[in-house]
Structure to design on (179 residues):
């Protein structure tokens, strides 16, 4: 519930009356600008302070977080939801696979929280290579870690890698089991 509204007394100066205005508000992030249309504010005629209407603030928050994700090269909240649905997982199942807890994953999808670069990378891998879930789900507790030469491993396991501008790209599948 709003503590202020059209015609109410300004909570900042206590003297002026608030007047509702709908504007197009501009925001800047890392030198890039975005305009949020239909941005509702209440402006005081005396002190000229502007208070943002709570529903507008909530709507703008998601828009601005996706804008900053785009600038930072991260997946959007819609992309995260698409990947989860592609894998046919609930939010709870994705939280179990990726870590961070159910509420955290739900907040990535709703746009309330921006995922870390590491989480973003994991989601991109799962989007491109869904069978990577097999590796994540193995997590053997009694098998000690083995140090292997990656080139030997690739040759034995039948992987086919091609050079890519940002590293290597998987282009084949392996039906082998790890052990």
């Amino acid at each position: 519930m709003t503590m202020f509204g059209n015609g109410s007394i300004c909570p900042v100066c206590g003297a002026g009356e608030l007047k509702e205005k709908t504007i197009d508000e501009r925001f800047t992030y890392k030198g890039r600008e975005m305009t949020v249309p239909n941005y509702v504010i209440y402006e005081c005629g005396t002190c000229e302070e502007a208070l943002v209407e709570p529903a507008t603030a909530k709507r703008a928050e998601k828009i601005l977080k996706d804008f900053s994700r785009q600038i930072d090269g991260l997946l959007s909240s819609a992309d995260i939801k698409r990947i989860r649905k592609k894998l046919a997982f609930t939010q709870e199942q994705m939280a179990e696979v990726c870590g961070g807890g159910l509420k955290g994953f739900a907040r990535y999808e709703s746009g309330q929280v921006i995922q870390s670069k590491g989480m973003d990378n994991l989601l991109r891998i799962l989007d491109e290579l869904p069978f990577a879930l097999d590796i994540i789900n193995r997590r053997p507790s009694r098998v000690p870690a083995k140090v292997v030469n990656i080139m030997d491993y690739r040759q034995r396991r039948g992987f086919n890698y091609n050079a890519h501008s940002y590293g290597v790209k998987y282009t084949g599948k392996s039906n082998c089991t790890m052990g």
In short: Residues 161-179 have pLDDT under 50 and may be disordered. The chain has seven helices and five strands. The helical segments are 54-72, 77-86, 91-98, 102-110, 117-128, 132-138, 150-157. Strands lie at 18-29, 32-44, 50-52, 161-164, 167-170.
